[in-house]
Structures are given as C-alpha cells and as structure tokens.
Amino acid sequence: MNTNRRHFLKLTAAMGGAAMTPFAWAKRADAQGLETMVVASGQTINSLDLHRTGTNRASYQVAINCYDRLVGFGSRQLPTGEMSYDYDTIVPELAESWTISDDGLTLTFTLKADATFTDGSSVTAEDVKWSFDRAVTVGGFPTTQMQAGGFFRPDQFEAVDARTFVVRLDYPSKLSLPNLAVPVPFIINSTVALANATEADPWAMEYLHTTTAGSGAYSVTRWDQGQQLVYERNDAWVGGPMPEIRRVIMREVPHNSTRRALIERGDVQVSFDIPDRDAAELVGTVDVFSTPIENCIHCACLNTRFEPFQDPEVRKAIAHAIPYEAIFQTAAYGRGAPMWGGPAEITDTAWPRPFPYVTDMDRARAHLEASSFASGFPVQMSISLDLASWMEPAALLIQESLGQLGITTTVERIPGANWRTVALVEKSLDFHLENFGGWLNTPDYYFFWAYQRDRLFNSSNYDNEEVHELTERTLHMPMDDPEWAPLVQRMFQIVIEDLPRIPLYQPALNVAVNGAAGYEFWFHRQLDPRRMTGV
C-alpha cells in the first residue's frame, strides 16, 4: 500500500471498523432545541449536481450533504481548539470495510447492508459502479478529479455482488483512497437517474440538476434559485452519526452588512464565509472560527494568451509592483499567511510557500523597461462578485500600483454564477484574481490542477512541458520516496521563475456562529451541518 506509516496505521484502524418564512422557522425552532438551523451565505448555488459542467463551488455542499461516498475523512482538533477534518484518517461512510491488495492495485469495498436511498431502496454495488462510471465519463472537473486518484475508465470498476464493489488501478497511488473521500465520487440512485435519463442525456444531467437522488444525511426539499435552499434530514441515514438538526435552510444573502446584522441579532445561526473584516470585528460578540485553508492561495493570475503577459519581464514587473502588505491588511485584515518575501533558495517541500518577490517599484520599472512593453499597456482585471469582499480591495490596490508603471487596468466585476465558466472553463480572462485550494493536501496535487496544461484551475493557460512531466511523475509517488522531494522542489523553482500565478496570501475561512455548536472546518470550504448541534 503506497502511503506513509502514520497514514497506514490510521487507515488500518478505520478499515476495522414551506409556506413559512425561513426566519420564522428559525424563531420557532429556538424553543425546540434548534430543529431548524438557518445559514446566511453570500455565495450563489447554481446546480444540485456537482458533475454538471459549470457547477460552482457553492454548489458542492449538495454533494456533501445529500449524497454519500464510500469513505470519508475523520476529525481532529487543531492547536487553536477548533475542529477540522483530518486528511490522515479515512473512515467508513457507505462502505463498512475495505481491503487493499499487497500490490496496491485492487481496492475491495463491502457496503453497509442497511444503506438506503431517500426513496427507501437499497444502495447496491451497481449504484456505486454507475455513479463512478458517470464521474469518469462526463468530462470536465469531475472526470479530471477522478483521474487524480488513478480512476480513468468504467472497466476499472466492478459490482461483484449487491454489497461488494471492486476498483482496479493501473498503478498504486498515494491519492487513490483519499480521493474517494472528496465530494466528486458521490453515489447516486441509479434506478431513479436512469428513469429520468434520455438518449441525449444518458447521465440524467438535467434531472439531477434540480433534484437530489442520494443516500446522504439530508435531501433538498426546496430550491429557490438565487434565494434559498432547504435541506431535510434523512432519518434512515447510516453513513455516520445521525445529525441533530432536522432542517437546514441556506439563505443567499449577497450583502455583507445584512449577513452581519442577521448573525449579530441571532436571526440566523451561521453566517458562512464572512469577510475578514467582519471576522476581526465580531470576535467577542458571536463565535468566530477562522481556519487557514490548507493547500489554498489567493493569487493574481496572468493569462498567457494575453500578449504582454507572454513576456517574462512583464510578469516580473507585475510581481514586484503588487502591494502585498497593503492587500494583506486591507483585504485580509491580517488573517491567513503572507505568500510573499520568501527565501530564494528552496530547501524543503512546504506548500503553500511564500514566493521570493516583494513590493519594489524600482525593480518593477526596471523589468518593465527591459520588456517589449516599456511604456505600459491597458488590461482588464476581472473579479468575482461572490468573492468581492477580498477581491475588490485587492484589485483596487493592484490597479493603483500598476498605474504607476503605465499599466492601465479596468476592474471588471463578474456575477458569481458566471465566474466559473468564464474564468475556469473558457479561461478567457486576461488578468484576474483567483483562489484555488487543493482538496488533497500535497503540493503535487495543487500543481496537477493549477499548473498542468488544460486543467480547470489553470486559468492562466500555463503550459510548461517540464512542469507537466514532473507533476505526472510525483502525483502518485509516495512522499517518502527519496526522489519525491527533489522533483517537487524543481517544480517550485520553475513556477517561481515563470509566474503564471502570483501568490498574494493564504486565506482563512471565516465562519460566525450564534446559537449553534459543533462547527467543523472542511477542505472543500462548504458547510457540513451533519455534526452541528444546538447550544
């Protein structure tokens, strides 16, 4: 089995083993021990199906809460006392147990006998196979995510009998089992899906876009697009401990000031992904959780299809002109970790890591004067309205600083529901801010998504053959292999020099809670209410 010893021991241990308004609901629930939890979020949910092209990150929560995976991640307490998922511990979800062959190529899962979908039908290995076949076939983000774990083709998956599901790998990978715990390989009721499929839509994309068909802790009973989504508990759920909260209402509240007022008054129990400023100012008034997001960096991205950004001197000029400290204090309120001013010499494999660039306008001018665009140029800088709390102040500060070089920027504000399509799918934005975070906590996995050609989160259209090959070599290699660290350090050297993405800072995920307990941070940056309770 390809993994380190500590991970192996934890895996082994695991293997043993609506006429009423939402706010009126919340007030009524207070007297009943928080039967209903109301959550305010500025993010827009644009689909109930994570496999659908263009589904945005806010929508991932549906896969987490309404569907099961074969396995999940455990929990741990951080040094701050906050709770977090535990990447090093894999726990059962739909699978009650699993085995891995000595050569690491065959994973055999035994499903829980009493697992049922929300319509009461049993979850079978055929449902698992159909769901995995779908994930590796539909293309785009879900298919690429499956590939990161070594899952490429339907012929790798077999339903041996109703409760036995087998995965056969082409090669051992340190990412295979953890990759089954991320949101993408969720298990769908294939009978329901096929009944709503068509010849033109064999994977029932249109049906599952608006209807859930899972075995998870909750199901969606109402979705008013752009307004709210309502979850109801599945009382037959066997994927984990039964949630205490029966109903969860996700309210889309676009204005930060409104969300802040709601959480301060106790009209909502959770305000999710709040701005850093509010997080700093709400401490002491309500419970505030600020957790650094593993494997995540806020970046300024330079699209290599834009002619000036094809010039390395221009890219370095921008890297030295960015006002890092001002952005960190103004946009992040000092929360998170700086990603600038790092050492030039690379002696470790820590990631995220500060790049060795600092704000230095003289050096910025020198680089620009050495380029083919010494007098500057105009460029549009794009931001997402869903992420405006940090993107807008950062963009305005960058705009002001680049203006001193003769680089004239116009800030374009794009609705959150459209951002993923134009920034990541079409990759049509010349200069933009971006905040990719890797689900699997290794640097090679981050490179797989953000620096390999044609990957979804490579919004800069970066294409370096050596980086591509190094990522392919290291992705599945055990981290204790003596070749791994030197290869990863070489990857660092190349992208620090090439600069398709200029790191700004590592962000924190801020969540305010008032009248609830049990909040836990998750790598996917969505709320998991399954462990939350009343106070």
UniProtKB/TrEMBL annotation:
One of its GO terms (molecular function) is peptide transmembrane transporter activity. SUPFAM superfamilies: Periplasmic binding protein-like II. Belongs to the bacterial solute-binding protein 5 family. Residues 89-452 form the Solute-binding protein family domain. Its main location: periplasm. Transmembrane segments: none annotated. It holds the Pfam family SBP_bac_5. This is Peptide/nickel transport system substrate-binding protein. Keywords: Signal, Transport. InterPro entries: Peptide/Ni-bd (IPR030678), SBP_5 (IPR039424), SBP_5_dom (IPR000914), TAT_signal (IPR006311), TAT_signal_bac_arc (IPR019546). The lineage of its organism: Bacteria, Pseudomonadati, Pseudomonadota, Alphaproteobacteria, Rhodobacterales. One of its GO terms (cellular component) is outer membrane-bounded periplasmic space. GO terms for biological process: peptide transport. Residues 1-26 form the signal peptide. It is found in: Periplasm.
